[in-house]
Amino acid sequence: MSWGTGLRWRPHALKPQENGKAVGIPIPLGNLVYHDCIMVPWNWFNNWGIPKGEDGDLYGALNAGMPYIHPYGNSLCKIGTDKRTADIDMMADEDLKKELERIKPLCELQAKLYNKEMVKHEFLGSYRKQKATYSDGTTVVIDLDKNTYEVSCI
Question: Domain range holding 33?
Answer without folding.
Answer: 3-115
